[in-house]
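Changelog note: in this version the structure field was regenerated for every chain. One regenerated record is shown below for reference.
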Amino acid sequence: MKEGFFYRRLILPILNLLRQGITPEKIALSIAFGIALGVFPVIGATTLLCALAAIVLRLNLPAIQLVNYFVYPLQIALLLPFIRFGEFLFRVRDPLPFSITQILQMITTSIPNAIATLWTATMHAIAAWLLVGPLTVLVSYAVLAPLLRRLAHLYSVSRAPKSSAEAAQ
């Protein structure tokens, strides 16, 4: 049976990490940080942030980067909401008059011009992310750790080697 893209590229690698003996808690923490850092509102910064977090916190680098890769569309989708939330936090009177499409066009046209134009909005977005990011890690970990413990248990039970008496029958 041919498995789907997400199963082959996301679920199976995570299951393989469990099979290799990496603890469910370590994988859950790696995934949680991959999600939170993967939506950091600075395009191009998440790979480095995830690598640094993996090194400093001794997380699983392949797991955190895998999740970072998969949440990239979410990063783009959340860019404007983070900017708007930051504008709300700082009580900005004149919000940035751009759509996500215009922001991405600005970035692809001229990165230095985009940085200059979006500097304040980016700082607002980072401030908003600083409030949301840690909560994302906590909630993600709280959901994923029991789920991965259950998967590890199911795998160990279903893949447990048979005793010599069972193998002989």
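Spot check on this record: The radius of gyration is 20 Å. Residues 5-158 form one domain.
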